[in-house]
Amino acid sequence: MAWIRRAWGTILDVRPYIRSGAGIWPIVEGVVLVHRHWWKAGLAWMVGLLLIAPPALGGPPRGLPANAPGGLPVRQDGHAYCFTQNVSFGSVIITGGRCYTTYLVRTSAGYFLGFGPPGPPMIPPGQLVRMNTPAGAKHKGRLFYLVPLGTRVPDFPLDAMRFVTVQFLLQGGVMVISVPLAGTTTAVLRSNQLSPREDR
């Protein structure tokens, strides 16, 4: 059983390098051991590395998506996003315990991400509605919140809105919303620091 003790000792020796992001060179050395006929030690080494440090091989996550364990206080329900707690963006507070559909909105005050009622989108995906029409005014009146985007949206007319599908991430205790604008262009909204929740 000496080969087991030798392999395990080697794993413990290289573990700090793996956790510090040293890469996959220990696995390469394990393969070299196999080729030197230390096949038992090499096999134990590689299996041990996979059990001890799989996150080091894939790199750190850039953010946690909605619905991830320990992730955002948001879950997706069809076209809607359901907030499990209040989330503030500047002075705008999105009330928790409710679900919302999201819309790209332009008024004379600028460009916004609008939060509307849950269920099927008020506006079919891909369509644009003018808010100076009776139908558009009705849709605008059903928006609960308007969060300023702080950026210009190319080729988006004044007094118009359309349905958008956004992406949520959690980064350092802050909710990040990626809003598609035109083509591959996106706007990024960052919330205020999220309050800790014991029930999350």
Description:
With 200 residues, the protein is an alpha+beta fold. The protein contains 5 helices and 13 strands. The chain has helices at 2-19, 25-35, 39-52, 54-58, 134-141, and strands spanning 64-65, 74-77, 80-83, 87-89, 92-94, 98-107, 110-116, 129-130, 145-148, 160-163, 167-171, 174-182, 185-193. The strands form 3 sheets. Strands 2, 3, 6, 7, 8, 9 and 10 form a 7-stranded antiparallel sheet that branches. Strands 1-11-12-13 form a 4-stranded antiparallel sheet, with no helix packed on it. A hairpin with a 2-residue loop joins strand 6 (98-107) and strand 7. Helix 1 runs parallel beside helix 3 (39-52) and helix 2 (25-35) runs antiparallel to helix 3 (39-52). The model is unreliable at 14-28, 30-35 and 47-69 (pLDDT under 50).
